[in-house]
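ok new one. same drill as before - structure tokens go in, u give me an amino acid for every spot. 225 of them this time. try not to just spam alanines like last time pls lmao
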């Protein structure tokens, strides 16, 4: 599930996918929901596992606008505040990070976190591109040095460290769970050569790509037996 309030949304997938979106003006969304849930904090751009509760509420909301549905959906006036509250529960970690942002007012802290989340989203959506700090700084309207300082104080790591961590996670997943040739993985992750990728993989995980795939293959064979 993704909550987005920062411009247009573009969705794509490597295979057949289904997308369900609830869209509308942010001002109308805020006014309608806050009238029912004044104690719920501002929802921030976020992506993660929505859970069964939020997925169920979103599906029920979709059914309210589908004339062909024969299943009971509920009233939007009830479902929308419930969805808002469920999403707010999923954002507790972000709300804690909001308190680490600088600014004398809540609006200032929210502005800082929104800028940093824009940087985080940019890194997540470009896993095969090594974005430099100048580019990331422009996205947040900060100088590279100021961005590094703020990002570390809120998230506990620099943008470069976060990008490297995501790249390592993706490398492990692609090596251990797919049959993609190592040369293709190298290209997809933006390494200059296959040997450079293999050295980095061995340095990070303590095993070569061949060793990891051999171990996974043996584990799959054991499960099949």
């Amino acid at each position: 599930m993704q909550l987005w309030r920062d411009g247009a949304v573009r969705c794509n997938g490597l295979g057949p996918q289904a997308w369900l979106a609830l869209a509308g003006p942010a001002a109308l969304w805020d006014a309608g929901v806050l009238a029912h849930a004044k104690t719920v904090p501002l929802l921030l751009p976020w992506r993660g596992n929505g859970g069964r509760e939020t997925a169920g509420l979103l599906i029920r909301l979709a059914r309210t606008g589908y004339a062909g549905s024969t299943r009971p959906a509920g009233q939007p006036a009830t479902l929308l505040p419930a969805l808002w509250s469920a999403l707010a529960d999923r954002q507790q970690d972000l709300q804690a990070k909001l308190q680490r942002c600088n600014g004398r007012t809540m609006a200032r802290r929210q502005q800082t976190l929104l800028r940093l989340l824009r940087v985080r989203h940019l890194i997540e959506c470009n896993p095969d591109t090594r974005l430099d700090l100048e580019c990331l700084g422009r996205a947040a309207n900060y100088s590279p040095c100021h961005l590094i300082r703020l990002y570390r104080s809120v998230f506990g790591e620099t943008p470069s460290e976060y990008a490297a961590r995501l790249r390592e996670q993706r490398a492990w997943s692609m090596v251990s769970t797919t049959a993609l040739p190592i040369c293709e993985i190298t290209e997809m992750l933006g390494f200059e050569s296959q040997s450079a990728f293999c050295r980095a993989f061995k340095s990070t995980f303590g095993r070569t790509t061949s060793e990891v795939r051999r171990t996974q293959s043996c584990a799959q064979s054991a499960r099949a037996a």
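Residues 106-124 form the longest helix (19 residues). and btw The mean pLDDT is 84.
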